[in-house]
Design a protein that fits this description.
seven-stranded mixed sheet; three-stranded antiparallel sheet; 14 strands; about 0% helix; disordered N terminus
Length: about 280
């Protein structure tokens, strides 16, 4: 019988831009470690496979997995091959070197009614040699403007979480084969926990005793010394904040970045590496 292997993409939290997010990932292969017994005539023995992972960051999933399938990428990079058949031994193929990887695209969609924003990164093989990617790399962020870095976290996407628009984790192949000009994808979702803070109105000016500060040549119309415009204070304005989300395949490789406007606090849900389609 041909042993079946299942490979698990480890999760990654923020990059060094956000050292407060931490975790470790690990992967397991199926099987009980026992040698299979003789097969009965007309029957084939099967080796059980199981999948297990836990959230974390910066951990690679080095074990290879077979793959098949290729498609086209609207950004110009052809789809990476998803390991799904036991016919190819990816252990014999080299892991992509940082110099072989380049940013194909980094984008975000328009926010939904609840403020959730989905986005993705595509990393392409810019070399002329086949290679594989098993590491999930890192996903991090930079808080800009009124955004509060203490109120932003990066977590691994899980089934049933607050980002149902992301692919089910079972679709993550663990290892993706990148032929020249093909790309893999990491998707993410920004789920806000609150709106950006509101800045209060400036204090209403206090009239001066002698009326100083009034319009030049002012007469009886304005003896208080207060500009009439300042009497019409609104309830304040929403502070401007945004979050720059980044993905780095591995140390030494280029970093992809995209920005989410009007974002100040929330959770970034991320996937592992995905074969593009």
């Amino acid at each position: 019988a041909v042993p079946a292997f299942v490979h698990v993409a480890t999760s990654d939290g923020a990059s060094t831009a956000n050292p407060s997010i931490a975790g470790h990932g690990e992967q397991a292969q199926g099987g009980n470690g026992e040698e299979p017994g003789p097969e009965e005539p007309g029957r084939r023995s099967e080796v059980p496979a199981e999948r297990e992972s836990e959230g974390g960051e910066g951990e690679a999933a080095p074990d290879p997995s077979p793959s098949r399938g290729e498609g086209s990428d609207p950004d110009g990079a052809v789809a990476g091959e998803k390991p799904d058949t036991p016919s190819v031994d990816y252990a014999s193929l080299p892991v992509c070197d940082p110099g072989q990887l380049g940013v194909a695209s980094a984008s975000t969609d328009a926010p939904g009614a609840d403020g959730t924003v989905y986005g993705s990164f595509r990393i392409a093989n810019v070399s002329g040699t086949d290679c594989t990617v098993s590491s999930n790399g890192t996903v991090g962020f930079t808080a800009l403007g009124a955004a509060d870095s203490q109120k932003i976290v990066v977590v691994q996407h899980a089934a049933g979480d607050a980002a149902p628009g992301l692919p089910d984790p079972s679709q993550e192949p663990g290892t993706v084969l990148l032929k020249p000009a093909t790309a893999y994808e990491v998707r993410f979702a920004w789920v806000p926990t609150d709106t950006c803070p509101t800045t209060g109105p400036s204090p209403t000016p206090t009239p001066s005793a002698d009326g100083a500060g009034g319009p030049v040549g002012g007469g009886s119309e304005n003896q208080s010394g207060v500009d009439p415009q300042s009497l019409y204070e609104d309830g304040g304005t929403t502070a401007e904040g945004s979050v720059a989300v980044t993905h780095t395949p591995e140390t030494g490789a280029p970093t992809a970045q995209t920005e989410i406007p009007n974002a100040c606090s929330g959770t970034i849900y991320r996937t592992g590496v995905l074969a593009t389609s």
